[in-house]
Specification:
1 helix; single chain; 3 strands; alpha+beta; about 20% helix; elongated
Length: about 70
C-alpha cells in the first residue's frame, strides 16, 4: 500500500482558511486516516492496492462542506 505524506503546515493553513471562509468562523476539524484509490481503474482491484492518506473531517452546521457533497 502506498502512503501519502502527512499534511504539512501549509496544507493545514489551507484547510483552516477554507473552513473559516466557508463558515464565517473558525471551525474545529480532525485529521482522519483513510484508504483511498487514486484511479477509477482500481475499482476492480483488491483493497490492498489502495493508498493511505490523512484527510480533514469536520461536522457541518448550516452550510454543506464542499469536500463531501
Amino acid at each position: 500500500m502506498a502512503v501519502i505524506p502527512d499534511i504539512n503546515k501549509t496544507e493545514k493553513w489551507l484547510i483552516e482558511t477554507t473552513l473559516k471562509e466557508g463558515y464565517g468562523e473558525t471551525r474545529p476539524y480532525q485529521l482522519a486516516d483513510a484508504e483511498i484509490r487514486l484511479q477509477s481503474a482500481e475499482r476492480s482491484r483488491h483493497v490492498a492496492d489502495s493508498t493511505r492518506a490523512l484527510l480533514p473531517a469536520w461536522q457541518r452546521r448550516q452550510k454543506q462542506n464542499t469536500f463531501n457533497q
